[in-house]
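1st attempt posting a full record on here, be nice pls
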Amino acid sequence: VQLVESGGGLVQPGGSLRLSCAASGFTFSNYRMSWYRQGPGKERELVAFISSFGGSTNYADSVKGRFTISRDNAKRTVYLQMNGLKPEDTAVYLCTGGGLWGQGTQVTVSS
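the predicted structure (as tokens):
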């Protein structure tokens, strides 16, 4: 029973990354899934969430128009496409759902 994130890394400002979160051990399609992030010295904040079948999404104001959350229930995976990255997007990104948290993946935006 776990969530495993991947896809983080170092990217220049204006660049893009696609994060993935693979789920196992629970009925993935029953649950809303969310991405959070925690930057250095900052509180953990909600970035985006998606309903169980993907019909509804919601974003933090700071990422609207730049980030897109999606899911593939057949692959038990939720994604976060991040475009137009800014230095202030630097954080550990974590996915959560079904009462579980992943270990996080580091995203660093720097020139």
